[in-house]
Amino acid sequence: MEISKTEKKLRETKFFLDNLIAVHRHPTEAHPEAFEHYLSAFLSAGRSVTIYLQNEAKKEYDEFFPVFEKSLSPQERSLCQEIINQRNNETKSSGAEFEKKDRTVHSPIGPEYDVIPAPALFSIDPNLGFFISINIPQYFFKIDGSHPSELIQAFQQYVAILERWLKEFKEKYSVKDV
User: Fold this and answer.
1) Measured between alpha carbons, how far is 159 from 155 in angstroms, rounded to an integer?
2) Of the candidates 53, 32, 139, which has an alpha carbon nearest to the alpha carbon of residue 96?
3) pLDDT tens-digit readout, 33-55
4) DSSP secondary structure letter of residue 27
5) What's the rounded Cα separation, in Å, for the pair 10 and 28?
6) 130 in helix, strand or coil?
7) CA 140 to CA 9: how far, in whole Å?
8) Total Cβ atoms within 10 A of residue 70
């Protein structure tokens, strides 16, 4: 049995997660909608991992998936269901539903800075000297109607679930790495 397309889809999911993390860490260096674009791609690729395996190994998938799903904690099941819901919102209706909040960061500036990220608000304080204030966006969504969860952390957990799922599947059915 070969599941190379499923494995490639998991790598694609991780690629988009890495890009989400990079944009999240350096939002002022990216295209203004980069986070939303990578979010859309991540949701689509992540959801496709299980669908690809179902296509590549239907009989084994149908046997394995319900058992694995029962092994998940309630929080993990809620997260997986929320990813499916968000992917459906993103691809079939008005887009993924998330909350964006800005966190203001203050940074001193001096002659060693040759590039100032935009948009930034320049200020002067008699004690601090020149500094800039930058709004850093943070993204949240609600899992199972609970308090907002930070998207990057939730997506990292989701990828870990997918990795565990695929690893256990390969062990159970003696699938060799290609």
Assistant:
1) 6
2) 139
3) 888 899 999 999 999 999 999 99
4) G
5) 28
6) strand
7) 25
8) 8
Contacts of 106 (CB under 8 A, 6+ apart): 131, 132, 133
* CA distances, 62 to each of 55, 57, 58, 165 (Å): 10, 8, 6, 13
Q: Is the pLDDT of residue 2 over 70?
A: yes
Number of Cα atoms under 13 Å in the Cβ half of residue 53: 23
Residue 121 pLDDT class (50, 70, 90 cuts)? low
Put residue 174 in one of left, alpha, beta given phi > 0 → left and psi -120 to 50 → alpha.
left
Burial class from Cβ neighbours inside 10 Å (0-12, 13-18, 19+) for residue 156 reads: middle
pTM of the model: 0.81
Q: Rounded distance, CA 166 to CA 123, Å? A: 51
Confirm if 24 and 65 have CB atoms less than 8 A apart. no
